[in-house]
Structure formats: structure tokens, C-alpha cells
Amino acid sequence: MYKIYINGRPLFLANTHEAGGVPSADDTNIVTRYMGNSRLLLSYMDMLEKNLRFDSVTVYSDDVEKLFRDFAGQFKIIEAAGGVVYNTEGEVLLIFKRDHWDLPKGKIDHGERREDAAVREVLEETGLSSAELGDFLGVTYHTYRDHKGRRILKYTYWYRMKAEKEALIPQEEEEIEHAEWHAPKAFLESKPVVYGNIRDLLLKEVNGGLGQPAK
Predict the structure, then answer these.
(1) For residue 106, which of 35, 116, 56, 69 has the smallest C-alpha distance?
(2) Backbone phi, then psi, for 68, in 5-degree steps?
(3) Helix H segments across 111-160?
(4) Tens digits of per-residue pLDDT, 75-107?
(5) Is the dihedral of CA 153, 203, 122, 126 positive or negative?
(6) For 23, which DSSP code?
(7) How many angstroms separate the Cα of 50 from the Cα of each of 9, 43, 55, 73, 187?
(8) Range(s) for CATH 3.90.79.10 in the chain?
(9) Burial of 15 per CB tally in 10 Å (0-12, 13-18, 19+)
(10) Chain-centre distance for alpha carbon 37
(11) For labelling alongside 39, which of 8, 135, 143, 179 has CA 20 to 30 A away?
(12) Contact predicate 169/179, CB 8 Å
């Protein structure tokens, strides 16, 4: 199953047998079978982009990989990488920018390895002197429009990392206001203003990799 955030709300692309694991159809959650017309996917994107009435859209198909390819074909793809960085006290490194809490991440440079980009972005955005690369955690997806109005689908590749607890220097040129260490469970329980894909990733970490997708 793919979960793509559009305007802060999820679009699920699921296999037919996975459709039961996503929000049920009701007045605010749409569930529909994909019949192969990729242009119709744009209408579902518009529902989440322009209409705050809907909490989620689920599109399902017997071939979810083709469904995802058809969906991604409507966008310009940008790839990024970032880190869930732990210190020796089990705290996670978080940044605050544009009125939301986030994890350090950024675009992958041409020819750069994903792992190298993840570490580089963590160091640049937080002022850490070093970070030890760990396990690959997975990919998150979200969409936005660039300054020309083009639809962008961003893939972000996430890695677990370790670092010493040290003074942090937020990268001002990236509009980062704060870089702070937080206990992940307490952070989530405080109900912070955080992007959905970041919340999902932290929830999965708190639950030992068994977190359920946030609704």
C-alpha cells in the first residue's frame, strides 16, 4: 500500500485485499476502485487539494504497482533523504520550520547516494558535527505545487542515525527556527503541529516498527 499526503491529508493507493485496512467510505472518506483511467486520478487529487471536506481518498486496484506508476506519471518527481537521529538518551532530533515540526531532510544532489544525502542534510540543517548512519526505515510521499504551479511528488528516503547530544545550530537559510532533542513518545503525546508523514514515521518508531498509519 502507498500512502501519499496531499494538502496534509492521505491518499491511499492499495491492492484490492488491502482496501479493508484503510478508512471506510463515508461522507468524508472516499473509497473507489481504479478502472485504469489515469486522468481520473487528478480529480481525486483535486478533492484533497481544494476541498477540506474530505479526510482521505482510497483508490484500490488488483495491480497496485501499475496504479502507483499511473499516479506518479501525473507529477514531476523529486527525491530527498533524511534522518531519524537518536542521541544516547533516546531522544530524537527535530526541527521547526514554516510553523510545523519536522525531521531534517533535503533534496538528493545529482549523482549523490541516498545515504550520503541523508547524513549531509542532517548535519547541514541542525549543526551536528557528525551522525552515524543506521538502518533504512522506508519512504514517505507527499505532493505540492512549485512556484510555477506544477505538481510535484516528493519521495523521501529515511534512515535511522545515532549522534552525540550536542549544541545545535538551525540552518537559517532553510528557514529553520529551532533544532531540538525530544523524547519521541512524549513529543507525540503533546499533540504538536507536525506533518502527517513525519507523525507516521515517529509513531512507527515509538511502537517498535509496528505503528499503524495515522488517520
Answers:
(1) 116
(2) -65, -40
(3) 114-126
(4) 999 999 999 999 999 999 999 999 999 999 999
(5) positive
(6) P
(7) 11, 10, 12, 21, 30
(8) 78-206
(9) middle
(10) 26
(11) 8
(12) yes
Q: Pairing relation of β-strands 56-61 and 92-97? A: unpaired
Please state, in angstroms and rounded to a whole number, the distance separating the CA atoms of residues 68 and 64. 6
Give the integer Cα–Cα distance in Å for 80 and 48. Answer: 23
Whether pTM exceeds 0.70: yes
Outline where DSSP puts E strands in the chain: 2-6, 9-15, 29-33, 56-61, 76-86, 92-97, 100-102, 105-107, 132-145, 151-162, 176-182
pLDDT tens for 50-78 read 878 889 999 999 999 999 999 999 999 99
143-161 as b/e: b if 16+ CB within 10 A:
beeeeeeeeebbbbbbbbb
Q: Does domain 78-206 have CATH number 3.40.50.720?
A: no
Residues 6+ apart with CB under 8 A from 194: 100, 101, 102, 202
Distance CA 178, CA 126 (A): 9
Any residues with CB less than 8 A from the CB of 151 and at least 6 apart, and which? 45, 74, 75, 76, 143, 145
Q: Which residues contact 182 (CB under 8 A, 6 or more apart)?
A: 91, 92, 94
